[in-house]
Write a structure and sequence with these properties.
three-stranded mixed β-sheet, globular
Length: 103
Amino acid sequence: MSESELKEEVIRAIKTVYDPEIPVDVYELGLIYDLKVFPINNVFVSMTLTSPSCPSAGTLPGEVEQKIREVEGVNDVSVELTFDPPYSTEMMSEEAKLELGFM
């Protein structure tokens, strides 16, 4: 599997993770800031939460990591949680904005 194909599979896996308070997946919400696939299929994800006091802070990053680990071909996963830049609704995809009534 090529790097770009693996990246697509990883994105598909991330899109199965939902913020429990919002009916939109974390990818479309704009919570994934960076996604890199390095040689030997190591995956790095930089992500945020809708708020530093988000009740899902303890579970969402781990759930993202677990879903990526389940992708065939992934060797290792590193998920980094950051709040810089702070999350805003402008980071949402058009699909998410439509789903949540922002459009």
